[in-house]
Amino acid sequence: MAVRLCSANYPLYAVTLLDDTHILVAGGGGAARTGVENAMEIFELCGEGKTCVATSVHKHSTDPRAVMSLAAKPDGKGHLIAAGMDGKCQLFRITKSSEAQEEGEQDVDKENEANLRKRKGSSGHKAEKPTEETEQTSSDFKVESLACVDTDFHKEEPFQKVVRFSRDGDIIATGGADGHVRVWKVPKLEKKLDIKAHLDEIDDLDISPSGNKIVSVSRDYHAYVWKVEGGKREAELHWDKKVPEKSYRIKAVRFGTSQEKKSTVQLYTMHIPARRERKPLPCYLTKWDAMKYVPEKTRSTGTDLLSSLVVSDDGVFLGVGTNSGDTMIYVSWSLQKVHRVSEAHGIFVTGLSFLRNNAVTEKLTNGAETALISVSADHHVNLTPLRPRFMISVWFAVIGFLVLVIVLMVFLAQEGLI
Questions:
Q1: CA spacing 20 to 30 A to 170: which of 146, 280, 299, 318?
Q2: Could you give the count of Cα atoms lying within 13 Å of 29 in the half-sphere of its Cβ?
Q3: pLDDT in tens, 210-267
Q4: How much of the chain is in helix, strand and coil states, percent to nearest 5?
Q5: Is the CB of residue 384 less than 8 Å from the CB of residue 405?
Q6: Among residues 260, 317, 308, which one has the least CA distance to residue 287?
């Protein structure tokens, strides 16, 4: 079963890990005057007996807009946070108060921020005045607004759907309703690249571990690989040729690397039916050769529509969320499902993040092999722990051995040998 870590006062749409014991969640009611707040909130994880709980340690208001997409990257001073709100992306820095720099220290980023605040807002790609710092529920953390740019220019309803950092943190990539992939230099958010990538809105994208490729997937049924330098299209992902054209589309895409062998890169995609049929069609996970961009393995996940995908930092596990609120954990190399919690949430899963697979997580989760954080519009933050599989195997071996001994004893007794 899933562990209820905590609940927020607003619907949640995104979650990301800050460090071993802190997560950042975000969401809200949007610009409509519904009385539902818009916020980012930091929760601290701690062990409580045999379970794990989360306590709010800092809340930052993002009014009047809700954060719908989120990405985080350590930068040596704290964490850079890229937050998608309507058609904009805002860059924040979160630091612990003890890490705040002293008043007289020379800081290039602070000078950049001061310059950015002097600029007027713009509907183009230039940075506009960031949202001012607002509500803080704890003195342990500080949230600075660094820059804000328009990242989507859909004529009717601009909407940034996804944002991703490169592994080195030098760039972010955004995608949304207008079908463009845009690349921005951090921390000023100067536009580096603008690709008219798709004819319909972009559902998801990811940046390769080397930082030189971007894969984007769209509602136009296409998935493309782009070069970061120059924006040239390098390849298209072609899935199962036996599947009728436009019967499926790729909903999500993620790169993954092996912790033991960093040069080993895999690509994972999540496939959902393009239309809901009277008899539901299955959804699929696919592992791709990230060099040749050909599928290596595909696994059905069942007929429950998939909503979210994430890869663990060590590349061992995939986390999957569904429209009915289920959470699932798969082994990445085999696409074998090792755990599923039905209806972990009351509504579709909107965001996922793995805790790091280390001693801290093992202690927080009472010995779990890995642990998946999930959020939903039901306001809840849940934890899906995976108990060590070798323990289950050992118990099966012990039980099997005892059964074998009993059968042998019965046989010998019947033969009069004992």
A1: 318
A2: 9
A3: 999 999 999 999 999 999 999 999 999 999 878 888 899 999 999 998 766 667 899 9
A4: 10, 50, 40
A5: no
A6: 317
